[in-house]
Predict the structure of TetR/AcrR family transcriptional regulator.
Amino acid sequence: MAQLRELKKQQTRERISHVATLMFIERGFEQTTIADIAQAAGVSKMTVTNYFPRKEDLFFDAYEEVVDGPSRTVAERSPGESALAALRRKYLADCEAHAALLGRISPGFARLTVESPALRTRLREIYDQQEQALARTLIEEVGAEGVAPRVAAAQLSGVQRVLFHEARRRCEAGQDEEEFFTGLAAAAREAFGLLEPALGDYAVK
């Protein structure tokens, strides 16, 4: 029974997110209200806000994974692997798997992240939170506070942020799936490679 309840909750969450996405693209983010989404999804406003406390998180519905994913990758890296190597390996594996989290979205959805002031603000918050989470993990992993883990976190999270915008650019250009992920993987190799001289040997497990 517990599994069935969790499945229904997940299905409800996905339905709300899907309806919201379509409405945002059709009407615009600011022009779409929580009440509109609730009515279209066949649920109450309270149900929507229980799953998504902020309207912006209906748009960035995978924000928790964006915030926590890099930290988890670093914490779970293999023996002998640096933080940089772990994040590069994970990103390239996601490109190979055509992972949805890397941001292959419709051109209309991509444009909204530029056109909406609220979404631009929320996106900055998400990547700031990612950087802070990564800094905490690096401090734990190297066993020392100070400037170094925070600088490393800023650089490594900066690559993730740049690659998100690169993904959006490729979506707006209308690239097909294969071109998108092949190009994004090449961009990732270049971006992480630029950090290799500084961070290639940092936080090796």
Remarks:
- Residues 62-199 form a domain with the Tetracycline Repressor; domain 2 fold (CATH 1.10.357).
- DSSP finds ten helices and no strands in the chain.
- The chain has a mean pLDDT of 92.
